[in-house]
Hints:
Elements: H1 7-10, E1 16-23, H2 31-37, H3 49-57, E2 67-70, E3 96-97, H4 118-138, H5 143-165, H6 173-178, H7 184-201, E4 206-209, H8 225-249, E5 258-260, E6 265-271, E7 274-278, E8 282-287, E9 295-297, E10 299-300, E11 307-309, E12 312-313, H9 315-324, H10 341-344
Parallel strand pairs: 1-9, 1-12, 2-3, 2-4
Antiparallel strand pairs: 1-8, 5-8, 6-7, 10-11
Helix pairs in contact: 4-5, 7-8
Amino acid sequence: xxGDWFKNIGECSxxxxxxxxxxxxxxxxxxxxTFQTGRHVREGAHPTLGSWVCYGLGxxxxxxxxFVVLGVPTGDCCGGAWTHGAAYLGPEYGGVRLSVDPKRxxxxxxxxxNALSMEEQAENLSLLGKLNHIAxxxxxxxxxxxxxxxxxxxxxxxxxSVPETLQLEKESETTRKLYGIDQANTKSFGEQCLVARxxxxxxxxxxxxxxxxxxxxxxxxxxEIKSNHTKLATQVDRPVxxxxxxxxxxxxxxxxxxxxxxxxxxxxxxxxxxxDHHPQGFCAWLAGGGVKGGTVHGSTDELxxxxxxxxxxxxxxxxxxxxxxxxxxxxxxxxxxKRLDIDHGEPITQxx
Length: 352
């Protein structure tokens, strides 16, 4: 069953594996961080799923980051940059935020009309690189320095590759309509989903798209939940379905794992005209990448209050993603960094 708010995603049901029995630790918006790291927000920064993937697999494209973040992440109250950070793995494995504006996709790209030529900027960056490498002789174990050297080198390479990636006008009108870019209410998120496909095609390992981020998040409907969710689901439904359909028609879905998730659910009981936070039982779905489509796994009690059948903590999603990408989280451990069993999770093999 798929709700009316997600009718377009519902058309893709045969490609989806829906997990209906997730639970998480945090009953507040720090759960946004927990979904990414498996840890409570008060435990601070820990490596995210995206950073573990990039740490384990490395880069496919020298001109683009391994891990790209689109949309507005959660606010500082709920994890902030930690939700796409790498913590002790080192900043080079953290997500790079990207705007879908081809004229200003990154803060360090020289704007049009700037007096600095590409040759002059290359010389400047080359000098900075040399100075950083000299400093590296004195500070060989400085992770921040290594990341800065890498970022300067990547930044210059990205100045040509990123704007080309964002030239959505090169896509056919049919493709643009598929993502809802022709409609005002789906245009912004549709562009992000289309950019995600173009990034994956160009070898970016991990693309993370946020919707409704900042503060507690736009989806936090403690009142007027029907109007709130109707508006927000409309923004998401068509673009996400378009991404799935587009990946499939291009033969990319079988090699691309799509995860559609959330911080927690909403309570089955009313809170006035809204509903409260609900970490004891909620859903997510996966598609592509070797996942068995048309699958429903796990269940809650008859009220939808507690996950009771095949219960899965959120790191079971992480373990499943890593498994499908050929990685074992137990072999990704870093010396001197003890991880808990719950951090690793268990792959949900029933949906594979």
